[in-house]
Structures
1.
Amino acid sequence: MRVRVEVIRGDITKSRVDAIVNAANPSLLGGGGVDGAIHRAAGPQLLAACRQLGSCPRGEARVTNGFNLPAHFIIHTPGPVWQGGIADESQVLASSYRHSLLLAERMGCRTVDFSSISTGVYGFPLARAARIATETINEVIADDPGKLRRVRIVAFDGETENAYKQALSAAYFNIA
Ligand code: ADP
């Protein structure tokens, strides 16, 4: 069965899905932006669970329970900090999406919502990040979708929503 890939506008802490993907930092101990919002909404048990995990290298992913969130699991992935394109940022970003999705598949997830990894405080150029995200998601699901049925990017603002929608339609155009 085909996996649907969609872009929606919203607050990922409200997503009622099997797993949400958090734009974390390598300490996994919470931060600003979407990470802070997820920790506030999930409750203090999340911080305790993250402490147990230890740190996580950029481009990799770790999973915790969703605790007080409507999502069942939280997948935490520290994306790259944009440094002008000289430090393999694109490969690390692709790796964040790939590892997160493979981990979701291993957990048997059917529905996964991603936040826009690295495009906030980490400064990754939005259009480029959106292209890498949609291409990597499409590659992973084409290879082996597991039980996945739907993958969404949850954009917090209109500019982000438009960037991912454009990247998604470009990706479909390339496939066709
Ligand atoms: P990073 O440090 O990886 O750049 P940020 O949290 O600073 O991560 O930003 C990543 C994206 O998450 C940005 O597009 C930001 O607007 C968005 N964001 C912030 N809060 C939320 C939320 N509650 N739901 C979904 N996205 C959010």
2.
Amino acid sequence: MRPRTTSDPRDGFLRSLGAGSAIVAPLVIEGRVEHAITLHFNQPNAFDEIDALLLRSVASHVALALANVQVYDLERLRRTRAESLERVVRMLRDTRTTEEVVLVFAVTVSHEVKVACAIYEIDRTAATRRAVRTLEPARRGMPARVDASYLLPKLERGELTLSSKLPETERKRLFGTNSGAIVPLRSDGNVWGFVLFMDSPGAFDWEDVERRVYLRTLASHLELALSAAIGFERIQQLARALSESNEFKDDLLAMLAHDFKGPLTVIAGYCELLLESSPPALHEELETIYSQTQRLVRLADDAVALAQTQAGGFSLDRSVLDLREVVGESVKARNRAADRIRFEAPAQPVPVSLDPGRFNHVLDNLLMNALKYSDGEVLVRVSRGEENASIAVTDRGIGIPSEELGQVFTRFGRASNARRKGVSGSGVGLYVSRKIVEVHGGSISVASAEGRGSTFTISLPISDSL
Ligand code: ADP
């Protein structure tokens, strides 16, 4: 733009200067006249073409310098904003619960970005303020609870809403006499609430695109931290519910097992007495009652052991015993009912440290399974190695499908062929047996072929001496 030279005494501008002549060069920054440089003199016609040219050149230099200052200021502002954002994000990183997230966000944003802010959670159409930080002096707006039905469609569309775009009643309710913006917050794909940024009128240019992008970025970090906290709280809730239901189940199991076992043992005792004293015609029925009662006693035993293993392990009452004798006793007890078990053991003692009560439970499980899942002879062999002793129980029964071998030691794990053939069972015995063997410092494994039989092997550390 060319400078304007004037010496016309009717020129209002000249008169206001009280000068005889003047020359005015506009300062144009980004296409807009922002300032002007004026030279004036008390005599008329003091300036010529050359002065105009010179002033024009000076004016373009000054305009350039001013533009540079603006760019520099903008850069500095951006850098400060970026640093503030970084600090907000850093503070959010240390939060865990939603309570902490919203509070830390409100406090750091008001401190770092110098805008008041309130975070609202929405339940249906009502928005409840979860955290707020006002700037001094205290302002109205940012109510504790507000009807958000008007805002909902905007929030659902993910729109940032400027206070200036709200109807007056809504604006007053949310922002008082101040200005600001509302940014939606989502969690799990749904609207969780919104964050309201607010400042005193004129402090910020809320229409500024960069500022809006900045507020959105802040809100996205808040969203991220909120989602993580909501996830964390849900997991905690689930874990609590799970542990409560587990405790309840363990208590129930232990109580059932104890209260069942007493009466069942009495029934089994009377059955034995009746079997000895009653006429043979009744024996078949009595045998059935007896064996079924025994099964229930067994189930109750498993249930007690299961409850104990679930309730955080159990203690062992150990002593060093000869494994040949421990296993031999169990075999003898089983053979009393059906003489199908052959027992082999080395000539020398096999000292192991074990809790006989608990270990008998394991042996009984293996022997009863071998008898239950096969018809023929069962071989039980105790052997002694350098560091370990082992017990192998082999039968030539139904076996276990190879792909299901892993699951028979899991809780309630049963092989498909046992189910298919209708052999009764609970899938608890081997699980409990594995736990008991493991607390003894040993291991249990199985080798099996479907239709050909199975060998269950327990390995235990050898003890120094008996
Ligand atoms: P249960 O026999 O009461 O079902 P267990 O925990 O003792 O429970 O055994 C788990 C599963 O392992 C059984 O259901 C059965 O499928 C399989 N199993 C155990 N012992 C044998 C065996 N000797 N022969 C074939 N399958 C067996």
